Amino acid sequence: MSEQANQCRKRTHGSPIVGGKNAKRSRVQLRAASTELMDMPPEILEHIFSLVESPQNLIISLQGITNQYTEYMMHRHRCFVYAHRKQRREGLREPMVRAALTVLQAATDYFKCGYESHFVFNLASFHVRMSKSTSISPICIHLKKFISEFLLSVEKPLGSHNRSALADSKMGAHQRRLRLTLTLINLLRQFRSFTIMSSGMRLMHWHLRIGVQSIFLRVADQRVRLRGLEHHIHIVGLIAEMLLHDQLNDPFYCIKTVDNFTYGYGLSMTRKRPNSMFFNFNILAPQSTLLVLQKAVDGEFDPTNVAHLTPDSAFNMRLVMTGKSKSQGLCTTDTFSLQF
């Protein structure tokens, strides 16, 4: 089987011919190789997956085994999480990895159902990098990278690197925006100082105000409005990083520049200079969707049910984030917004 696949790759690699007998023969051989793999027992398939250096290329070339590989990697991920459960005797690394896996779950729960194949696409390399990480800095880097790449990948067909490629219809895009909003709310709920300030209808929009103490997130340009999906996902990544430090009770401060925007963010535990963030959601959506959002805020919605949601009209969300801090008796306020 592997020899057949290798011959197929040799024939197609670097060939200028798009059609013709060679291309047709290659497609037939790929389908034959996929059929042979599908006929193998699950334990043999798992052994093959464990030996392949880049399984992503395998599941793209042989699409018939995508489901088998997805099931295999989801099982491996459950084993990876179980292996990092709390132990009586453990070093400094284990609590950091366990906290990172908790944040990863909060950041992906609303997307894994329906996008499992996208979730596992880079999961093997993520496990390897986390296993080699011994300090908080690389763990944060690998966690944010995986979350960002996963959330961006669901916008495109599996394995596609074309930014203009669309995963499905406009209605599917509305549902992904809903899932991204649910993800952000889910992350905020995990902070120890999470507070629901208010929620309810105002005119035609549903308003939600959430407060989180001790964190801060600033943009160099005041009153800036961030547009575009990549900016939204980047903010999700920054909040995930702050949540990781909050889980570990580890204060930090970081400055990063992304696409000409400079962000200052972190976790401050000092009482002399208290910080707080307020997240004001302004959402226009069907009543059924608003009920789901309210249940999610209250922690009463099962993320596995999100795949059955089909918004029957446009989903619009505007988020205004306001940070307040006090220093030497002075109070400063930073405000910026996201919209989609």
Verbal overview:
- By secondary structure, the chain is of the alpha+beta class.
- The protein folds into two domains: 40-103 and 113-167, no CATH class; 171-340, no CATH class.
- It has twelve helices and nine strands.
- The strands form two sheets. The chain has a six-stranded mixed beta sheet with strand order 1-2-7-8-9-4. It has a three-stranded antiparallel beta sheet with strand order 3-6-5, with helices on one face.
- A hairpin with a 2-residue loop joins strand 1 (195-202) and strand 2.
- It is globular.
- Residues 1-25 are annotated as: Disordered.
Which stretches of 5+ consecutive residues score pLDDT under 50? Answer: 1-35
* Helix content bin: 40-55%
Termini separation comes to: 47 Å
The rough form would be described as globular
Largest beta sheet: what is the strand line-up?
1-2-7-8-9-4
Rg over alpha carbons: 23 Å
Q: What's the total count of β strands? A: 9
What does the average pLDDT come to? Answer: 79
Q: Report the sheet-strand fraction.
A: 15-25%
- Write the H/E string, N to C: HHHHHHHHHHEEEEHEEEHEE
Count of helices?
A: 12
Region (Disordered): 1-25
